[in-house]
Amino acid sequence: MMDAVSISLAARIIIDVLMAIGFIFALAGVVGLLRMPDAFCRMQSSTNVATLGMLGAMIAALIYSICIGAAGMAIKLGCLCVFFIITNPISSHAIAKAAYKFGIRPKDKMVCDDYGEDQEND
Amino acid sequence: MIELMLFAIGYAVLAMLVCIRLVKGPSGVDRAVASDCVDTLTTVSLALFAVFSGRSIYLDISMTLAVLGFLGTVIISRYLEGKL
Questions:
Q1: Does residue A53 contact residue A29 with C-beta atoms inside 8 Å?
Q2: Within 10 Å of residue A1's Cβ, how many Cβ atoms?
Q3: pTM
Q4: What chain B residue is nearest to A41 in terms of C-alpha separation?
Q5: Contact call for B66 and A84, based on CB within 8 A
Q6: Within 10 A of A24 (CB to CB), how many other CB atoms are there?
Q7: Burial label, B56 (beta-carbon count in 10 A; 0-12, 13-18, 19+)
Q8: pLDDT tens for residues B5-37?
Q9: Which of A13, A30, A52, A82 should be substituted to probe chain B, the one whose Cβ sees the most B Cβ atoms within 10 Å?
């Protein structure tokens, strides 16, 4: 929207702070994804991007679209947030299980390995 | 409100940074994790741009991208697991 709508200063401050928090978390996740030593650590950093790095910016956009009075956009953004919250644990669980089955182990010695013990007992 | 556009550009730059890991990841699992991350960052960037420009069509595109990214991640991990 160009500058046809005007929103209050408090709403602008809240939106900017939420977007800045989300961007800082996403930046931390990306730096961890680039610099962590093995695949499981990188998975943990990727989760950092997918939870608060996404949710901060999405909630900021939700508040902005409520302030400019676009109800359709707000409903779509809410659906997107709920979809991400539901599907991120599923996909990261699938990737972690695939990494274990693929033969990737943590770089240092593992302290406990319950899944492997279960596989051996069966 | 120009900050929405600035943060959308910032998220797009972060998605391009993740492409480094996507190119040089040692195994397939690293590439799957990085592609999931690229998908999330691109979705957020598109949503911010949609809210900035006031057009709802970009939001539809970002919802489609989120669904397809989730399906792709699950299917790639099933393949790496050896059950596909």
A1: yes
A2: 16
A3: 0.90
A4: B30
A5: yes
A6: 13
A7: middle
A8: 999 999 999 999 999 999 987 888 999 999 999
A9: A30
